[in-house]
Amino acid sequence: MAEKLPMMIDCDPGVDDAIAIMMALSQPSVDLLAITCVAGNTHLDNVLRNALRVLRVCDRLDVPVYKGADVPLLNLHNKRAHDVHGSDGLGGVPDPDPPSLDLVQSEHAVHAMLRLTKEHPGQVTMLAIGPLTNLALAIRLDPGFTGRLKKLVIMGGNTEGSGSETDAAEFNFHVDPEAAHILLSDVQCPTVIVAWETCLQNGLPWDWFEVWSSTPTAKAKFVSAILHGRFLTYLKSHEKVFRVCDGLAMAVALRPEMILKALTCPVMVELQGRVTRGQMVRRVKNTEGLPLGPEVKVVIRCDTDILRKLMEDTVVE
């Protein structure tokens, strides 16, 4: 029997976070060790409930959920993405029997990250699809944390100065730029970044989406319900294709061969700019002569047929 892929997901569900979690759970090859939660798309209690809702839909409440940071490192950013993800983070879809937060583990998310990487050194793939506060705290507590990861895949940042949260910055990095800076300055494992522009350029056709979201299964009905609110209204009014940022990052983590084009280079996160705070910059020329951080792989183009197949697997029962 093939070895399973141990994985941790650090997230802030979030509609596309929910889809990414479901993608992982649909793959028999994945051993999901933990879901660690961070405030981002919505407030932390909502994030925790949403993670539990997704696990319940997938009949996988055995996966432990951990509570992490409820504010950014400097606590300068209090905006949530309720305009996109709804008031509760999952489209505002009522849940008549919401899962109890008593199901959340008592151990802090950051401590769980450190413990699990010590128990599985060099084996765990970490998918980070929310603000990077938990990972930055883990590095500060234990500088060897990322060195024990097999791989880190991040959905965040940008490559061409195009923002989702501001004119210049992507949401996850803009929520906690200091955390992104700490992580990308000190990361010690192979790191892949799926940036904002990459998500925009590697979407799926809307006609495919209509068929996919109409699949007659409980999982598909859940996905359709959380999508058919503010999230879908926003996408259809702004974009020519269905893009699922966190799902694309999960697909890259599961099937790295889907990467068709990438750039390997150091990156930095702007912390001071009045307009550009939170922007990720590829350090290709380094005309300033500043110290360069570790090289990371920035994904540019993907095989979306692989994404499509993984998304289809997600709603099968």
From TrEMBL:
Residues 8-305 form the Inosine/uridine-preferring nucleoside hydrolase domain. Gene3D superfamilies: Ribonucleoside hydrolase-like (3.90.245.10). Keywords: Glycosidase, Hydrolase. It comes from the Eukaryota. GO terms for molecular function: hydrolase activity, hydrolyzing N-glycosyl compounds. Belongs to the IUNH family. This is Inosine-uridine preferring nucleoside hydrolase-like. The lineage of its organism: Eukaryota, Metazoa, Echinodermata, Eleutherozoa, Asterozoa.
